[in-house]
Design goal:
The protein is α/β, with parallel strands linked by helices. The protein contains 14 helices and 24 strands. The protein is globular and about 70 Å long.
Length: 423
């Protein structure tokens, strides 16, 4: 096998043309060296579009400085691009994450250049490491396929790519971006306990990243034979894997394996997946397909919300009309879990924000987006309990949701329900 030939980042990005649509690998594994080189060409380029999941680190492609050259249109909005999206100098493409790859594969969204970060080759194959996301699809359709080969990217099993597929290779060895999360609050732990009570031994889990998912994981230490099929995981889930609570023994597919599409956490999480045969890092087309999700019995999805109204509509992507994050994979997993034999779809949220604003409300804020429709909602969990809205009428839903709202908000909610329903 001949040694790969590397070129400079500046030479690699000469392939980018005005009007091109660029896909970036995302989360902790953004190809920053290529972005930096492209910024040095900004004066020569116009109308270059960027697409990606949320990205960590600097995001000059969404800044006012380069607005005459670059136009960011991500599938999810992270903290680094939130101000730009809210100011109108960057944009957002609403999509369920499962469908992001379909946009590329069907041609609904162009992808002229794929810029990704990969591991060092092993037997002629490279791994996308911590961020497979929809990059496999982008690499299938792109005219130019630029890879940053980085020894810091763990070679993870799952969906691998022949190194010869790339039109250019660039070397970089900067560390991947890591993230730590605040210790769970008392409210987080109370929610975690209420979620854990709904999860039987042998269940297969999906959950996100952050202090609340870590709190839920902390409350599962006494469980047995849990599985993990998720779009992402972090340190909380890693602790359960290493303790043997998550062993995948009851999974019907990928038995004994941890399946995910992207990660964000400590270096320990990244080290864990390196050449680990128990981990499969897969295309989002696999991890987030509701039909695949449903094949594992006892699938339990746990997602959060910004607010939920008295009929069960879940807003998880915006604060009023201001985009805050994105649709993500919430609906993918809600529907997959509900189709699973014995599965449960859980929306877990604190009853109030840190500033004391109610999160269970008579109606969503004006302009708020509905990520999970009322017809799809099943379990709703707060620190005050858990209620099942599945099969319940509007008035029944309102009564149930009021029962898990903050006690100081219940009287106003009861009045709002009476005004709306007449009883």
């Amino acid at each position: 096998m001949k040694e790969p030939k590397y070129i400079s980042a500046d030479e690699a990005v000469r392939a980018v043309r005005s009007g091109d649509h660029i896909h970036l690998s995302s989360i902790a594994s953004v190809p920053h060296i290529l972005i930096e080189a492209l910024c040095r060409r900004a004066g020569e380029l116009t109308d270059v579009h960027f697409h990606h999941f949320h990205t960590e680190g600097p995001a000059p492609y969404g800044s006012a400085e380069f607005r005459d050259s670059f136009w960011d249109q991500g599938f999810f909005v992270g903290p680094n691009l939130r101000p730009s999206v809210q100011a109108g100098i960057a944009d957002y493409i609403p999509t369920n994450l499962f469908e992001s790859q379909l946009m590329y594969r069907t041609g609904a969204l162009r992808c002229d250049v794929a810029m990704v970060q990969v591991s060092e080759p092993v037997n002629g194959m490279v791994s996308l490491g911590t961020s497979v996301d929809c990059s496999i699809a982008a690499l299938e359709v792109a005219r130019e396929r630029l890879a940053v080969v980085n020894p810091q990217v763990p070679f993870a099993y799952g969906d691998l790519i022949p190194v010869e597929r790339f039109t250019a290779l660039v070397w970089d060895d900067r560390p991947l971006i890591t993230s730590t999360y605040a210790q769970p609050s008392e409210t987080d732990l109370a929610i975690g306990k209420n979620c854990a009570a709904l999860i039987p031994d042998g269940a297969c889990l999906q959950m996100g990243i952050g202090s609340m998912p870590n709190a839920i994981c902390a409350c599962l230490g006494g469980h047995k034979h849990l599985g993990l099929h998720t779009e992402m995981f972090s340190d909380g889930a890693l602790a359960l894997i290493q303790s043997g609570v998550i062993d995948g023994a009851c999974k019907a597919i990928d038995t004994g394996k941890v399946v995910a599409s992207f990660l964000l956490g400590s270096q320990a999480v990244y080290d864990f997946i390196r050449e680990n045969p128990l981990v499969q890092m897969r295309d989002i087309a696999y991890t987030n397909d509701p039909r695949v999700i449903a094949r594992n019995p006892g699938m339990v999805s746990i997602n959060s919300a910004i607010e939920i109204d008295l009929t069960g509509q879940v807003c998880a992507d915006s604060i009023g009309s201001r985009i805050y994050s994105g649709t993500g994979g919430q609906l993918d997993f809600v529907r997959g879990a509900k189709l699973s034999q014995g599965g449960k779809a859980i929306i877990a949220l604190a009853s109030r924000t840190n500033k004391g604003r109610a999160k269970i409300v008579p109606q969503l804020q004006s302009g708020a987006g509905v990520v999970t429709p009322r017809a799809d909602v099943q379990w709703v969990v707060t620190e005050f309990g858990a209620v099942n809205l599945y099969g319940k009428s509007l008035q029944e839903r309102a009564r149930l949701l009021i029962s898990v709202a903050h006690p100081q908000d219940r009287e106003a909610l009861e009045q709002a329900a009476f005004n709306r329903f007449g009883r």
